[in-house]
What does this fold into?
Amino acid sequence: MFKSNHWRRLALKAALAMPLSASAAQGQMSASSEQELADLVRKTEARASAFMRGDMDKWASLTRIADDFTLMQPFGGEASRGFDMSPERLAKLASYFRNGDAKVELVQSYVSADLVVLAVIEREHGEVGGLPDQDWSLRVTLVYRRQGTEWWLVHRHADPLVRHVELETAAALARGANLDRR
It folds into this structure.
């Protein structure tokens, strides 16, 4: 698509510089909408914290996942559809994520009558997959849809690129290079 390295770099810089900002389009939110958004952010943080602790019973009690849910995991790969909330799956997740915690920083939000988009940083730590406790902070985009009186999660996209990476590292990730063997 791009014939020179100069144009590739310019296109990448332009794409990365585009802000995620819907505030101009949002207009003013009512006090009740602001409170509802604050409640949703608090619940999002409680969910993330329960997940990083491996407390899947608590996480499941706080979480409503829509039938048409899509997930783009922080470990990469294809997007998945739907979510298995069976006791067996939750037990497997509970053994994979342990002894952690999370705080959520709201970067941007978009709110309409029946849809909320949250761009957040999940500042997380914990033991994941048998590794010792470490920082697992993620950049996350969440899309919630109102179903009745509740907000149901319809999309989650998370990546571990909270810290800046150089162009060459981003390129290596994009082409699927094994960074452990560089």
About this structure: Confidence is low (pLDDT under 50) at residues 6-26. The longest strand covers residues 97-111. The beta strands are 65-72, 80-81, 97-111, 115-128, 134-135, 138-147, 150-159.
